[in-house]
Amino acid sequence: LVSTSNGLAEEFHFHTSFDVIMFSYSLSMISDQEGAIRNAIKFLNPGGVILILDFGELEGFPLIAGQLFKKFLKRFSVSPRKRELSLFLTREHIPFEIRSLSFGYSYIAEVRKN
Directed axis angle between helix 33-42 and helix 82-91, to 10°? Predict the structure, then answer.
């Protein structure tokens, strides 16, 4: 069963818990990224996973191309923060795996709840 809801990810409240929660090209548009992840973890079943697919930091792009694309994303309030996500999850001792895709254009992350 798949259901969708509208709301602020860092404040949303559910009346149930989930095995999987997905952020697809959305986390980079949420100002309180840490709050969104914390809130999602609250609603995960034990052993559940948060799957994140989002814009990367373009580390494999030529410098000028990467800078231009980041400028373009910024016009739409998109702020890729893969490094900040890794630091937050490490600091909070939250198990995760993260890897870059397509020369850093995007990344995929699995965040697990013990």
Answer: 50
